[in-house]
Design a protein that fits this description.
single chain; alpha/beta; seven-stranded parallel beta sheet; three-stranded mixed beta sheet; 13 helices; globular; binds nicotinamide-adenine-dinucleotide
Length: about 350
């Protein structure tokens, strides 16, 4: 198949793209390049790169013809991809995460292209018990709202042969060639390795479903290749844990570790755990534990595979804020700015 991966240069995309190539698919990537795209150039066979804003899909039909030429499936990951980044500019978040998704999905529907959307378990917000795909949604942030609205729009557009699928991913962890250190297991791995100390914000009693980035990438391969899914929405998760449980795992792995608690001015209300039996029924099973992810990240830090791991480059919200003061500048200006920052993430530009 020819598969277009939007956001293919991001944390998840950079793990997914080589898996698709290894399975013999031809891969196109559309990514604005907020976190660099250079690492994709190392992949073999080569990837066809469109360093473009998803905005062009909204506005430029001729561009869509070129982008979607021969494409059989779109895996749509491009997004302002976490709560703090999304709050920097909720209008931009809606534009990228909702309007961009809708425009791309319209093009996919017109052309009969299979569409796999990267949603998030954060759509559940704060709710007791194990949540299924049919549980009520309670989006608490601009990010979660954008995912809920995009899922709903896809559901309304579905019809006949065109059956888009939304994967509600849990909180990811694990090593990626485009690393993120703003995800809880990854942050704990960083500070446990460098300082023998991790900090839990608040009481740490909030539940989250966790999923290794490799397993998440495998789930996207699975749902891209399998067209006969019975549902439009799937929870994709492996282990439900509270943040204190995650900290406990780190202590078991490193008995000298100090765990401290920090008070939060505004406590994080998000608290959800999910049941993933629908995903299992569709024939997909995650394999990798939190412990496996911790070992691999620790090794990557020690081996120097991740240059300057404390840089804000690995933290989406801080990086985007530094780049742009989002909201005052256009995407084009942000990119121009990035190109002119010397030595920051030099390997990626
Ligand atoms: N990482 C997680 O824990 C997690 C959990 C649930 C859902 N998700 C979803 O999975 C997807 C991928 O997440 P990730 O962790 O790889 O995030 P990421 O921020 O590393 O990657 C997102 C990519 O999208 C690109 N992008 C952003 N705006 C764009 C635009 N206007 N036009 C084109 N490209 C644009 C960025 O340059 C980046 O490479 C996102 O949709 C995210 O919401 C992630």
């Amino acid at each position: 198949m020819t598969i277009l991966v939007t956001g293919g240069a991001g944390y998840l995309g950079s793990v997914l793209v080589p898996k698709l190539l290894a399975r013999g698919h031809r891969v196109k990537v559309l990514d604005i390049g907020y976190f660099g795209i250079g690492h994709l150039r190392a992949f073999r066979p080569t990837v066809e790169l469109f360093r473009e804003d998803i905005e062009r899909v909204v506005n430029d039909h001729r561009f869509c013809d070129e982008l979607l030429d021969q494409v059989d499936c779109i895996i749509h990951l491009a997004a302002i991809s976490n709560d703090p980044s999304a709050e920097l500019n909720p209008t931009l978040t809606k534009h990228v995460n909702f309007d961009g998704t809708l425009a791309l999905a319209e093009e996919a529907r017109k052309r009969g292209i299979h569409f796999v959307f990267s949603s998030s378990c954060s759509v559940y917000g704060e709710a007791p018990g194990e949540l299924t795909e049919d549980s009520p949604l309670e989006p608490l942030t601009a990010y979660a709202h954008s995912k809920v609205e995009a899922e709903a729009a896809l559901g309304q557009m579905a019809g006949g042969e065109w059956r888009p699928v939304s994967l509600r991913n849990g909180t990811l962890f694990g090593y990626s060639p485009r690393m993120r250190f703003d995800l809880v297991v990854n942050i704990f791995s960083l500070y446990s390795t460098l300082y023998n100390e991790i900090k839990v914000f608040g009481d740490g009693l909030q539940w989250r479903p966790y999923l290794h980035v490799n397993d998440c990438a495998r789930a996207f391969v699975h749902f891209a290749e399998k067209r006969d899914h019975s549902h439009f929405v799937y929870n994709i998760a492996h282990e439900n844990l509270r943040v204190v449980d995650v900290a406990g795992l780190f202590q078991q792995m490193n008995p000298r570790l100090k765990v401290s608690h920090l008070n939060m001015v505004e406590p994080d209300r998000r608290d959800y755990r999910v049941r993933a039996s629908r995903m299992e029924g569709a024939g997909f099973l995650p394999r990798l534990t939190v412990e496996a992810g911790v070992v691999e990240i620790t090794e990557a830090i020690i081996n120097g595979q991740i240059p300057d791991p404390e840089s804000i480059y690995y933290r989406n919200a801080k990086w985007l804020k530094e780049l742009s003061e989002l909201g005052n500048r256009s995407h084009r200006e942000i990119l121009g700015l990035m190109e002119n920052i010397p030595n920051r993430a030099a390997t990626s530009f």
